[in-house]
Amino acid sequence: MAMAVSESDQIKQFKEFLGTYNKVTENCFMDCVKDFTTRDVKPEESSCSESCLQKYLKMTQRISMRFQEYHIQQNEALAAKAGLLGQPR
């Protein structure tokens, strides 16, 4: 049964990844690709899309770091509170 839950979680994570990937791709495409008169990707479109993706990756990394910092602070606060509650008066 535990294996099914793990597989289910993996499928859920993969679906979330694909959803995020599709959103980023669509956003960067809509922002950067303007000329549909040629099959070639223009240099400015390519650099725009690369910048767009880099910005997204940096933003995601920064959010993850802040999220970790928040959880560390919350855990420290809980540990301090538990330490105070466990001491006799």
TrEMBL record:
Its main location: mitochondrion. It is found in: Mitochondrion inner membrane. The keyword Lyase does not apply. Keywords: Chaperone, Disulfide bond, Membrane, Metal-binding, Mitochondrion, Mitochondrion inner membrane, Protein transport, Translocation, Transport, Zinc. The keyword Transport applies. Heterohexamer. Belongs to the small Tim family. This is Mitochondrial import inner membrane translocase subunit. The lineage of its organism: Eukaryota, Metazoa, Chordata, Craniata, Vertebrata.
